[in-house]
Specification:
The complex is a heterodimer of chains A (about 120) and B (about 110). Chain A is about 0% helix and about 50% strand. By secondary structure, chain A is mostly beta strands. In chain A, a hairpin with a 2-residue loop joins strand 7 and strand 8. With about 110 residues, chain B is mainly beta. The chains are: A mainly beta (about 120), B mainly beta (about 110). At the A-B interface, strand 5 and strand 10 of A face strand 5 and strand 10 of B.
Chain lengths: ~120, ~110
């Protein structure tokens, strides 16, 4: 089974802190994604990466950056956390191209609270 | 950008009743995926539809893709308490564009 793990289930940080959210997948997937999920707004794409050292902005990249130094790891960075970044953060991965299975595999999520 | 609209936002049913959620787009969709998220959980991929008019079944779940590929539906027959959660549709491309989901609650 594909496994996507995230470094923390719950995280509490203070305004202005630099925050690192880590995501690791064990299926050698090229594509990895970071979403945030908020009530009433659904899942919104922050950044994605289709290869090592490659990154693309999603719908809401402001205030975030990412790092993909190794294929299995995709990190989301909040350079200076703000209270409006309090949210559930979900990482996902998927295999490339037109394979039989194109669904994304999600990690368990990190619930971040910024005070 | 392209959006997929999902209705209803919430639905409450009695156990044994049927449930349907609809996903609509103003533009033609190349494909549609459906995900389920249990309370406190993460989205789990259910199925992908690609062909116009496609219908797929998974036990009590029936998924349809419209003839014009602008809408899709998920129908659950005889709901059970285990069906509780939020159902999302999404268009898959380089990344997923999600609808906002329909949250289903079931009372026994």
């Amino acid at each position: 089974d594909v496994k996507v793990t995230q470094s923390s289930r719950y995280l509490v940080k203070r305004t202005g802190e630099k925050v690192f959210l880590e995501c690791v997948q064990d299926m050698d997937h090229e594509n990895m994604f970071w979403y945030r999920q908020d009530p009433g707004l659904g899942l919104r794409l922050i950044y994605f990466s289709y290869d090592v050292k490659m990154k693309e902005k999603g719908d809401i990249p402001e205030g975030y950056s990412v790092s993909r130094e190794k294929k299995e790891r995709f990190s989301l960075i909040l350079e200076s956390a703000s209270t409006n970044q309090t949210s559930m953060y979900l990482c996902a991965s998927r295999p490339p191209g037109q394979g039989l299975f194109l669904g994304q595999f999600f990690g368990p999520g990190t619930r971040l609270t910024v005070l | 950008g392209q959006q997929v609209m999902q209705i209803p936002q919430y639905q409450h049913v009695q156990e044994g009743e049927d449930f349907t959620t609809y996903c609509n787009s103003s533009t033609t969709l190349s494909n549609i995926q459906w995900y389920k998220q249990r309370p406190g959980g993460h989205p789990v991929f259910l199925i992908q539809l690609v062909k116009s008019g496609e219908v797929k079944k998974q036990k009590r779940l029936t998924f349809q893709f419209g003839e014009a590929k602008k809408n899709s539906s998920l129908h659950i027959t005889a709901t059970q308490t285990t069906d509780v959660g939020t159902y999302f549709c999404a268009q898959a491309g380089t990344a997923l564009i999600f609808g906002k989901g329909t949250t289903l609650s079931v009372s026994s």
